[in-house]
Amino acid sequence: MSKSSLVIIIYVIGLIFGALFLDIWSAETSVGKALLGLGWTAIFLIALIYADRSENK
């Protein structure tokens, strides 16, 4: 399994966790929860870039 696939799987698991337990997509989402989702996506993109770079070396 490539590093990129592993990063994507971890990201999807985090999204499911956020949806089910943190109610990120509820109708009453606060600014903090929205920033949490944006931060998670930013970490995903950074990890994906590093995983892609390490695979191409």
Short précis:
The protein has helices spanning 3-20, 31-56.
Sequence-ordered SSE layout with sheet pairings:
Blueprint: H1 3-20, H2 31-56
Number of domains: 1
Low-pLDDT runs of 5+ residues are none
Distance between the termini: 17 Å
Q: Describe the sheet with the most strands.
A: none
The SSE order reads: HH
Tell me the total number of β-strands.
0
The fraction of residues in strands falls at under 5%
Structural class, please? Answer: mainly alpha
Please state the CA-atom Rg, rounded to the nearest Å.
13 Å
Helix fraction, binned, reads: over 70%
Shape: elongated
Treating each run of at least 4 consecutive H or I residues as one helix, how many helices? 2
Q: Calculate the mean pLDDT score and round it.
A: 89
Characteristics of this structure?
2 helices, 57 residues, mainly alpha, 0% strand
Notes on the protein architecture:
This protein is about 75% helix and about 0% strand. By secondary structure, the chain is an all-alpha fold. The protein is elongated, with a radius of gyration of 13 Å. The model has no long low-confidence stretch (mean pLDDT about 90).
